[in-house]
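Quick one, tokens below:
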């Protein structure tokens, strides 16, 4: 919801209104002015303003009433959206693409798990689509008409994460100027998605375990216990069982979040899915051109299938988006792909170690490939971890883990 004055120094209220509605068609914008005219009021309402108020306001209650009406409108819009989604039994699965045996097994497990109320743990490498699977689970669950609330555990420091999950009372810490409900309260009757739960500090794991066991939470700085009804879906790219053995993750919490486990295969193990995904992204990015792209030529497709995709689907998406931006013909060609994909894709066309068992040959090739790829990637970016991670389509932590595993230094 946006409250904006009409006359301001650098950007006027009408510009704010138009930009807000452009960013979000459901935005509720109230224009306030001390220089009102019938013409400006009509212009504001035509541009999508929710209301138009004249200063001085008769009372605070007048503004409060408009805000309450705006919030109610937003609630109804969101409720209608959820109801529309719930009418489709397959909602959420349209973004899960794959026909490989590994992914068909995942789809079947997701459908079964979605119907239950059990907590679910999604495991997979970075870029395999864990949040998409979590959203599909929610959209096909009995809670589909309620909210899906994602929280990135790895992105928040411990104190901020605690406040984000459980909320805080006014004055609980420096800067807590008002009471704030946490995501457990916001997601009440819906689904809470904790991405990278393996990065959660041990101290917070105890509080999360209690919330799941007792189905109630206490805000930071508060004394009141607040009941919550939340279905938890978690995701991690770590081996949580190994983290339990290393005492980095609490065993009781592991069993609580891991009632049903869904393991997402990396893209390199999804035979036949690369062309499907490549064409999916081509349709998305190839149409944003003066002359839409019509397809992918055979050489480019062969290289895409031969590449190992250490960054998984996210890396493939980035590569296709880049290629669509650079392509100068009606078809995406080999020259439109990044050099590191072209080089490694061609190398993958020949199977290494034909005198070795399949598993050993694959592991040997993958180790050599990853070492070469990381070395070239870091050299290309002058040792800049952030830029290298962005190009690879993985986060910084994942890249650091790869470097440590193969004894490489930026």
């Amino acid at each position: 919801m946006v409250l904006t004055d009409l006359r301001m120094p650098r950007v006027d209220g009408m510009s704010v209104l138009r930009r807000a509605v452009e960013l979000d068609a459901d935005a509720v914008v109230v224009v306030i002015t001390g220089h009102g005219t019938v013409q400006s009021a009509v212009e504001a309402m035509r541009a999508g303003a929710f209301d138009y108020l004249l200063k001085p306001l008769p009372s605070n209650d007048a503004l409060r009433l408009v805000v309450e009406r705006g919030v109610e409108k937003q609630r109804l819009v969101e409720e209608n959206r959820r109801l529309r989604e719930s009418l489709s039994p397959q909602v959420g699965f349209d973004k899960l693409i794959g026909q490989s045996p590994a992914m068909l097994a995942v789809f079947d497990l997701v459908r079964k798990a979605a119907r239950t109320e059990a907590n679910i743990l999604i495991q997979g490498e970075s870029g395999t689509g864990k949040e998409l699977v979590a959203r599909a689970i929610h959209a096909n669950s009995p809670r589909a008409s309620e909210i899906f609330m994602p929280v990135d555990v790895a992105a928040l420091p411990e104190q901020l994460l605690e406040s984000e999950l459980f909320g805080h009372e006014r004055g609980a810490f420096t800067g807590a100027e008002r009471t704030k409900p946490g995501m457990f309260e916001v997601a009440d009757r819906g689904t809470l998605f904790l991405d990278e739960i393996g990065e959660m500090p041990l101290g917070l794991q105890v509080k999360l375990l209690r919330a799941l066991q007792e189905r109630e939470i206490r805000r930071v700085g508060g004394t009141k216990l607040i009941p919550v009804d939340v279905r938890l879906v978690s995701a991690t790219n770590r081996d949580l069982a190994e983290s339990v053995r290393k005492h980095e993750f609490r065993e009781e919490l592991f069993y609580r979040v891991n009632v049903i486990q869904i393991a997402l295969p990396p893209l390199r193990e999804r035979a036949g899915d690369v062309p499907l995904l490549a064409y999916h992204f081509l349709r998305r990015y190839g149409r944003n051109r003066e002359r839409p792209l019509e397809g992918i030529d055979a050489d480019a497709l062969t290289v895409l299938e031969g590449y190992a995709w250490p960054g998984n689907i996210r890396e493939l998406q980035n590569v296709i988006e880049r290629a669509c931006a650079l392509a100068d013909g009606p078809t995406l060609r080999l020259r439109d792909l990044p050099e590191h994909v072209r080089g490694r894709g061609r190398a993958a066309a020949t199977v290494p170690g034909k005198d070795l068992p399949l598993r050993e040959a694959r592991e040997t090739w993958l180790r050599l490939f990853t070492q070469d790829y990381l070395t070239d990637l870091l050299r290309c970016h002058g040792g800049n971890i952030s830029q290298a991670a962005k190009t690879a389509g993985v986060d910084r932590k994942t890249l650091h883990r790869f470097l440590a595993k193969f004894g490489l230094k930026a």
